[in-house]
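= Tokenised fold =
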Amino acid sequence: MAKKIIISDRELEEQYEQSSFKLTQERSDFLLPQIVDFVKTKRWLNLHPEYQRRLVWDRKKKSLFIESLLLNIPVPPIFLFEWDYSRYEVMDGQQRLSSVLDFYDNKYKLTGLEQWSDLTGKSFSELPPLLKKALDRRRISATVILAESAKSDDDRSSLRRFVFERLNTGGQKLNAQELRNCLYSSLFNNLIVELAGNDLFDDIWEIPRYSDNIRGDQINTKLAENSLFKRMTDCEIVLRFFAFRQRSHVKGAVKKILDNCMIRNQSLGPDEITRLSELFISRLEAAKSIFGDRTFRIIDQKGKARLSQPLFDAVMVALDREYDHIETLKKKSKELIASLDRKLLSQKTYELVVGKLGTAPSIKDRADFMQKHFKEFI
């Protein structure tokens, strides 16, 4: 057994003094009208840094927060990161700030109030003058992580993600894709989000279209509450295609495969990103051309067509492998679908395709099965 090395208190103190990881912070209080101005001018505050999550408060939660401010109840501080001198982004408190901004912009009416029920149905412009003045005098405290905490752009990027992750461990835990979005900021990550907002992708997966439901920083409630959008599952679905395309990369735990894909593509330039975008969209369009309304839908044992992520994986990867024969596959789509349905009557095949096993070998087997199926019609 290896002997444990004992570090003296003095050595620990020296390590602490020499450590480059030290935060410099300050605390400030901001009036609500100041916050509104800071966000709207975009000179001061970025409300939606790329690593933020998508969770959005509903109207009742926003209303209760406004009620708390009216009652002068203490609210938790927000956390800001100074990414450049006197320019900040929100690390924690995005929903609180959005609630204030949207209310001042008359984008929702109060509902579900507990102490001020007489204000139900009122927007900011409809409040009595005294209550407007009361809100204008309310403050939100902010802890600001200052720019001098990091020595370089790389340090700054790593630091803000580290702090963001620590701040969010106390609330609703980030899922794996939300963490990837936080940790692997890059053109490739931007591409994943962009492709998740492709109209055809959204239509197939029954996600309200990004193009119809996002205006600037504002997300329509219909999209915000969609289960695939809310926790970035739509982005993970897109990522799975790129992660599983090359058979040699499919090994180990699925989470690790997806993480490695983000790491591997983190330094891609604009030309390669454009190529990958065109590649994904062409394979998606091919799937739609062949399967139509049945795209990525499997007929379950009750006879109902339901969307299937494992089927998406298999179809997209197999189409990528056989893309040179896409026109032939399109012409034989009816026979191809009918034959696939017959094969799925086998319990073993059904379990393979629906993804009962979410392991690297099963991912390979599904793609191989689908490729073999396509080859029968080439």
